[in-house]
Specification:
By secondary structure, the protein is of the alpha+beta class. Helix content is 40%, strand content 20%. The protein has a four-stranded mixed beta sheet with strand order 1-2-3-4. Pfam families: DYW_deaminase. Belongs to the PPR family. PCMP-H subfamily. InterPro entries: DYW_dom (IPR032867).
């Protein structure tokens, strides 16, 4: 599939894990972590975005993809960016 840069950028905004994390941030209500379960692998763009969101918002974000748990905290991931 051949997408131009704008189409690619728009499609990345609709990845389920990114939307789930955004929903979790909007509904934190004093919680210290957000947990997301996904049946496919997380893409590199979402992985980086969630790392930065965890640092900016100051919460732990846990994403379970098809292979492993990713624990995002303070801008770092437990997989050390190897997934």
């Amino acid at each position: 599939q051949d997408l131009d840069a704008e189409e690619k950028e728009n499609s990345l905004c609709n990845h389920s894990e990114r939307l789930a994390v955004a929903f979790g941030i909007l509904n934190l209500d004093g919680a210290s972590s957000i947990t997301v379960f996904k049946n496919l692998r997380i893409c590199g763009d979402c992985h980086n975005a969630i790392k930065y969101l965890a640092k900016i918002v100051g919460v732990q974000i846990i994403v379970r993809d098809s292979l492993r748990f990713h624990h995002f905290k303070d801008g770092l991931c437990s997989c050390r960016d190897f997934w």
